[in-house]
Structures are given as structure tokens and as C-alpha cells.
Amino acid sequence: MNETKILLQKITEGIQEKKGKNIVIADLTNIGDTICNYFIICQGNTPTQVSAIVDSVKESGRKVNAKPIFVDGLKNAEWVAMDYSDVLVHIFLPDIREFYNLETLWADAKLTTIPDID
Length: 118
Known about the structure:
This protein is of the alpha+beta class. The protein has helices at 3-17, 47-62, 94-100, 102-105; strands at residues 21-27, 38-43, 70-72, 79-83, 87-92, 110-114.
């Protein structure tokens, strides 16, 4: 398994650890010139949960020596973006996610839905 696939797995585990929901991985590798190869999109129910998911993703990434280059949106924790170079993680509140609807924006990407853990 290559490094990016391992990072995708670790990030997903970090999201699930804090009960992040509706996880979607968008594979952008066959789209052409994009800013990264993968998006991971998920949501938390409250700003506190969104912040907890961010912390968990950071911790999971450290397990494979990956640190985000940049994290933006923590002040309001309504939409936090985490840049891992090949992977961009988007953690939304549900209404903000619905408004921006990144899955539709990147409709040409191969989308993989990860089952929620209860």
C-alpha cells in the first residue's frame, strides 16, 4: 500500500474515532490538473465536534509521520480544511456542507462512501 493510501486510511480512522459522519473520499487522480489527488469530506454535528475531529486527524496522521501543511477554519469550526499536500480534508457542520456540496462540485471524481461507525 502506498503512502497516500495509508494516509487516507489513517485520516479516516481519525474521523471515525470522534464519530465524524458521512465520510466521502473523492479520488481526483484521473481528473487532470487539480490541487491534490484526494479530498476527504466529512461532518461533525457541532463546532466542538469538528474541532475534536481535527485534533484526531492530526494525531492519526502523526502515526505515519504526516503533518498538515496548513489548517484553516478552526476559529469558527464550521468548515475546517486540512492540507496534507496529496490529500485535502474538509470537515463541515451539516448545513455548511450541504450549502457548498463539494461532492457535486467534483462530480467527475470517483467517490467512495465510508460507512458511519455508531
